[in-house]
Amino acid sequence: MHLLILTSEFPPDLGGIATYLEHSARMLTRAGHHVTIIAPGDARCDKQLPDGTRLIRLIPHQTTSVPAFFQTLSHWPALSYEIAETAINHLRSTGDLPDVIEVQEYGALGYYLLQRRLVDETPLRDIPILVHLHSPHSENLRVNQMARYRFPDYWVGQMEKFCINAADALLSPSRFLRDKLLKQGFTDRSIDVIPYAGIDPSILIEDFDSPVDPQPEDIVYIGRLEVRKGVLPLVRVRSFVFGHYLVSMPFLNYGGPLGDGESVTALVARAVSAHSRRLCGGVTGDQMGATNEVAEVLFLILAPLCMRIG
Predict the structure, then answer these.
(1) 294 near 214, Cβ under 8 Å?
(2) Alpha-carbon distance 40 to 69, whole Å?
(3) What is the pLDDT of residues 169-213, one digit of tens each?
(4) What fold characterizes domain 2-193?
(5) What is the largest distance, in Å, between two alpha-carbon atoms of the chain?
(6) Domain range list for the chain
(7) pTM (2 decimals)?
(8) CA 243 to chain centroid
(9) 98-151: per-residue pLDDT in tens?
(10) Nearest to 274 by CA among 224, 239, 230
């Protein structure tokens, strides 16, 4: 099978979607499938990765034939237009039509792709488009206790809903996310559930300079400092259950203001201090495996939208 995957991030970019694609693309190519990924980056490229994945990079705000878009549209709508244009040009120039196109719902990345399939004469007409649900930006704002009706976020949320309802198929990594989006009124359509693929242990490193020194009896928490990640309930309510270390990844910290103007980072730091926990320096994604080898349990917090953690 030939898959074309459109994404807003891919390694070395950091983020959950990038991590998902890193492992999924490797496993799909190992299974004999042909995978092409189109993603933004610092430099244009069209190359084959060591695992066989074809990676096409575009430079955001520089590729589209309509430069004025970036003077009038916010980041996500403009990037959606650019991704769609890059994908259509790729299909036209190569004639290599995929069996399916996968695109994230986050940030409404597939908005213009789906729009142009409906109104344009493009190679997209006969290609199924799968929208993979990771967690909509608009739902993240709600869970993070931030305003959803502030522009341009409001319109991005409406575009995400269009993507979900215009797709040929919907895929969720968990029943919890599926049920949450159905309850919040994003769609009333059927959503298939396939859990994320596991981490490929071959890419993890064993030795690194860790900012913490966990002992075998410790339980290590690694996660973003975001309300939606469940950090505050973990620290405030269940802190007596967990070990001595609260390890954050600072490059993923969300420092935006809450309703009272206090940043999430400051709020978590205050809660950690109140419960006699230590907020240590961060580790990178590559270092998680090595940390897990030392600590008795690695407690990796994922978005509550994707998984419930009791």
Answers:
(1) yes
(2) 16
(3) 999 998 999 999 999 889 999 999 988 776 555 555 444 455 555
(4) Rossmann fold (3.40.50)
(5) 62
(6) 2-193, 204-300
(7) 0.74
(8) 28
(9) 999 999 999 999 999 999 998 888 888 889 999 999 989 888 888 777 778 888
(10) 239
